[in-house]
Description:
The complex is a heterodimer.
Chain A (H helix, E strand, L loop, with lengths): L2 E5 L2 E4 L5 E8 L5 E7 L5 E9 L2 E4 L6 E6 L2 E6 L8 E8 L9 E2 L3 E5 L1
Parallel strand pairs in A: 2-11
Antiparallel strand pairs in A: 1-3, 3-8, 4-5, 4-9, 5-6, 7-8, 9-10, 9-11
Chain B lengths: L2 E3 L4 E5 L4 E3 L2 E3 L6 E6 L5 E7 L5 E3 L5 E5 L4 E6 L8 E11 L2 E6 L3 E6 L1
Parallel strand pairs in B: 2-12
Antiparallel strand pairs in B: 1-4, 3-9, 5-6, 5-10, 7-8, 8-9, 10-11, 10-12
Amino acid sequence: SQTIHQWPATLVQPVGSPLSLECTVEGTSNPNLYWYRQAAGRGLQLLFYSVGIGQISSEVPQNLSASRPQDRQFILSSKKLLLSDSGFYLCAWSELAGRGDTQYFGPGTRLTVL
Amino acid sequence: AQSVTQPDIHITVSEGASLELRCNYSYGATPYLFWYVQSPGQGLQLLLKYFSGDTLVQGIKGFEAEFKRSQSSFNLRKPSVHWSDAAEYFCAVDKPMDSSYKLIFGSGTRLLVRP
């Protein structure tokens, strides 16, 4: 069966420090991968998605970037964190990119920027 | 533009009581609609989804949702709530992007269950 992992689970970082969050998927090949951010009391906002290795699309201009160095690995990064980067970051995958495909979410990483 | 509105930020029900969570969408064509549940500190799990056909959709954990095109609604229901249903619930609609689709989520409804 397929599983999705995210780490770390929680992270506290000072403003201006770099960031690297990792997401890996097991049990499937060539998944579509997504990074979402959930701010306190708000819904999910799609940040990046990827349909293949090295293929990254950004939905919202921001202080963050994403990379997909391997088929089932998706990394969210920042060179210098801002206070506004605090939130709950969720990675998700889907088998296809077609309409209605179910997205499966990881457990998330809670990031606090101080 | 596609959007989703969940008008209730919080809802409290007693255990064993019925539940209805509201969701209204804005979409120019036939929408694909989803309900996800998020337990505290966890990721999201799909409860059910609607594409076409029967407007009453059955999901996991005893949940169902009804698509009403005339009201642009996709409300989630459960006849008898259990304490373990306490969580945050998100409605979503799909939106085309490039050669794929993305999900537009509502802001969520937090369900509290009284013993």
